[in-house]
Amino acid sequence: MTISKSSTGIRLRVPCVEDGAAIWELVKNTRVLDINSPYSYLMFARYFQNTCVAAEDAGKIVGFVSAFRSPAAAEVIFVWQVAVEEAYRRRGLGMAMLTHLLNSQACRGIRFLEITVTPSNQAASSLYRRLAKELGVRCEIYPCFPGWLFPGGKHEDEMMFRIGPLKEMSRKD
Ligand SMILES: CC(C)(COP(=O)(O)OP(=O)(O)OC[C@H]1O[C@@H](n2cnc3c(N)ncnc32)[C@H](O)[C@@H]1OP(=O)(O)O)[C@@H](O)C(=O)NCCC(=O)NCCS
Hints:
The chain is α+β, with helices and mostly antiparallel strands. α3 (93-103) links the parallel β4 and β5. The chain has helices spanning 20-30, 38-47, 93-103, 122-135, and strands at residues 11-13, 53-57, 60-69, 76-84, 112-117, 138-145, 158-164. 27% of the residues lie in helices and 28% in strands. The chain folds into two domains: 1-65 and 82-107, Gcn5-related N-acetyltransferase (GNAT) (Aminopeptidase); 111-166, no CATH class. The structure holds coenzyme A (COA).
């Protein structure tokens, strides 16, 4: 796993329920991601722990990835949210957390990473295109959840980014 540009000291690990409140704050502070209930982050930390990544710097949660293996397609990992605290951005942390996840034992047999992105989120779409490029695989983009499916009539479309087919990665655990 590589964290470049002076991010040394950041530890990537699975989250625990004690991280739930800090993860909720981190996601809220992005002001871009949908903020879900504090309970949902506890649930991910307990029931999907091995497919999530927490980035910790000096005891503080500065990055988070939540994901799960698709119950309907064993070769797919669906990434739900990726968040990096503002002061830690553009140092390779987002990329490092995703690579760490794909390298983990929990992702054994995964061939596709799926994530949805809104068209206005340039940082996210650049990150996932860059991930596909670094992995040497395709990034297919197609509509997933159109805005009209969401209540209130104000949500952007969610576009699917499907990255793969992935080769077997070198496992770190
Ligand atoms: C998207 C996000 C997770 C990226 O995290 P990050 O740690 O800054 O990303 P990285 O440093 O690993 O960036 C890797 C590459 O992604 C692309 N990228 C990341 N942020 C970018 C931005 N703001 N603008 C354009 N490209 C960007 C670049 O290609 C970058 O490589 P480079 O810095 O060498 O040019 C972070 O900006 C964030 O938390 N945003 C708010 C929440 C969010 O939008 N999450 C994703 C929703 S699906």
